[in-house]
Write a structure and sequence with these properties.
Number of helices: 10
Distance between the termini: 36 Å
Number of strands: 11
Radius of gyration: 17 Å
Structural class: alpha/beta
Order of helices and strands: HEEEHEHEHEHHEHHEHEEHE
Shape: globular
Strand content: 15-25%
Length: about 260
């Protein structure tokens, strides 16, 4: 079965969206915002990702390496912090693209937020954490961190259909979750899985739960179930990839459990 190597893509994208200056590693961003997710969260949206998901809500910035502007960790921290403080949020995050592509930049931002009262939610596909166990060890040093690994489907076959990547790399998503648990993050409180289920069957979902239970028995009980939200630009990318979700929601009909 054909498919690209997301680790190879990681290097190419990293070279375009990350750079080193005297201030350290900088990352491209395209937006800073507040929002209703997690009950209220301040977000820095980054450019570039190491997957090409055919349902991605941010594909116009995550599937490319152009656009946006570079921010140092300190300047990005200040912008996200200001939004969170102004809105009295509890949570902050990087989103949009894949935050783990800029390791030093990401770790510096988490470290800066560790000196505040805010909790940092790391939304990631987990591939680089699965590839490099030391990444999980570095993340486990922070007490203000919650890691959410977003699984692209429930199996290697679904992973390929949804992302176009070699189905082997679905195992790296599982390995990322395992590395974080083994590094000391507490399942369901400090690390948990999210799964895109719009294209899955109940049988494949049950099989994935069994895989999670092998990592830790608590993990099947705290899965964040994800479904496609049919924003106009999401409909566009779904058509482009020939994907038809079994279950989806309109922007006006998003259920409470997804917010």
């Amino acid at each position: 079965m054909p498919g690209y190597n997301p680790l190879t893509l990681s290097e190419a994208v990293r070279n375009a969206v990350c750079r080193y200056t005297i201030t350290g590693e900088e990352r491209k961003y395209y937006r800073f915002r507040g929002g209703k997710w997690y009950g209220g969260i301040a977000t820095g949206d980054v450019v570039g990702c190491n997957l090409r998901c055919g349902f991605c809500w941010s594909w116009r910035f995550s599937h490319v390496s152009t656009g946006g502007w570079f921010e140092s960790a300190e300047s990005a921290f200040q912008k996200i912090y200001s939004i969170a403080a102004r809105n009295k949020y509890e949570y902050v995050r990087l989103s949009g693209g894949e935050p783990t592509l800029s390791k030093n930049h990401l770790l510096k931002i988490i470290q800066l937020f560790s000196e505040t009262s805010f909790t940092f939610i790391l939304e990631t596909n987990g591939l680089l954490i699965g590839h490099d166990p030391s990444y999980a060890e570095s993340l486990a040093e922070f007490s203000n961190l919650v890691v959410r690994i977003s699984f692209k489907g429930t199996s290697g076959e679904e992973f390929y259909v949804l992302t176009g990547a070699d189905p082997f790399f679905f195992k790296l998503q599982l390995k990322g979750l395992e590395n974080l648990v083994e590094s000391g993050l507490k399942p369901c409180t400090e690390v948990y899985p999210a799964v895109m289920l719009s294209f899955s069957t109940p049988e494949s979902y049950n099989q994935l739960k069994k895989e999670f239970s092998k990592i830790h028995p608590a993990l099947p009980s705290c899965i964040d179930e994800e479904y496609v939200i049919l924003y106009p630009h999401v409909k566009e990318v779904l058509r482009k990839h020939g994907l038809k979700p079994k279950i989806s929601y309109t922007p006006e009909g998003i259920p409470d459990f997804m917010i």
